[in-house]
Amino acid sequence: MNIIEIINKKRLGKILSEEEIAYAVNGYLSGEVKDYQMSSLLMAIVLKGLTDHEIITLTTIMLNSGEKLDLSSLGTVVDKHSTGGVGDKTTLIVAPIVASCGGRVAKMSGRGLGHTGGTIDKLESIPGFQVALDEKTFLNQVKTIGLAVVSQTSNLVPADKKIYALRDVTGTVESIPLIASSIMSKKIASGAKKLVIDVKVGKGALIKTLKDAQKLAKLMIQIGASHGIEVVCILSNMDIPLGNNIGNALEVKEAMEVLQGKTGHLTDLCIEIATQMVHLDLNISTKEAKKLVQKNIANGNAYHKFLEFVGAQGGNISNLPQSTYQYEILSKKSGFIDTIDALLLGNLSMHLGAGRLNLNDKLDYGAGIILNKKVGDKVEVGDTLMTLYTSKELNPQEISTESFLITDNPPKENPLIYQIME
Ligand code: URA
């Protein structure tokens, strides 16, 4: 067997055998298959696709490339995943809600890259917060308080780590088979047998259309079933940022506001995700689960669970960082906010210091954006559209307001949740 034959076979749209997929993946991990050969194979997969059977095989081979976490000592545990968005702080909100309802969440999360943020960066913006717990401490914390969130270890699916880094720089990220196997190999390795995935659809997301989101969700549910994992996918709108705050400490602040009763789209989505997680974890109907979720937000239990979780991992929530400068960006037009471009704001937030272009870039944890207006709001010339937080000196006049599309008429409402698939 050789890699050139495998590349040519896929280039012609033929089906690869298990041995051929294993040869390519394991050979790439060992260094025998070179970057340029793997990127050529990945591009052939992007163009010709993979059958469902090839996708399940690829997922299993990637999964077996590293360590797997054994959560069986915890009983039933539920995990969640988001395919990535701007202002997506849902883990910080739903994990304490689920734990306050009596569920158990043992979660491994990642860092952000490019315009999307990562949960681990958000948690690390809390002074003292420890994201690297050893396995025993991690499991004990879940047993005692119902939740723990840690950073992914380097030994979890190393094949995905190496392949994802290559995809990122070779234009091969946006392939549904590759996304499905990448996400599911990591989720299966993380050990939970119940999983809720928030599949983001829209301008600020990896997946731009509902049709593609449905395809991805169907595949992930199928891969989950082949490994004994119950998967529910929530297909949700990511045309506009989620909530008002973008940037690490700013998102922690907004998560606390939601847990203390703030209403809006972000809260609605978190209630839906938490409902599905509680439904799977406690094996109760979604109707009962939603009631329990709403009760535990209203009575403050979810917020107290958040404080307990932050304290257990060494964080000092009363001391969140703030960047040196604040700049208000004013509207140059009057009318109605028709849309807010999540991708442009994600990039702006990254340039303010909240995100990284390269994995080794240092973050300014206090940096980011607070949106002062939301879709549908009426604005006048001179109203504040957004406030920028940064440690860089800027001229606010030079900041573009093109991320806010302002029109003469109020926009029609887009759904927040398109579909739930299981
Ligand atoms: N997130 C992942 O973990 N992998 C992908 O391929 C895309 C999004």
Provide a count of the helices. 15
Helix content class: 40-55%
**How many β-strand stretches?**
13
Bound molecules: uracil
- How much beta, percentage-wise? 15-25%
- Backbone CA Rg: 22 Å
The termini sit apart by: 39 Å
Encode the helix/strand succession as letters: HHHHEHEHHEHHEHEEHHHHEEHEEEEE
The average pLDDT score comes to: 93
**Largest sheet, if any?**
4 strands, mixed
Give the class from helix and strand content and strand pairing: alpha/beta
| Strand adjacency order, main sheet | 1-4-5-13
Point out poorly predicted stretches. none
Which overall shape is indicated by the principal axes computed on the Cα atoms? globular
Question: Key terms for this structure?
Answer:
15 helices, 16% strand, globular, four-stranded mixed beta sheet, binds uracil
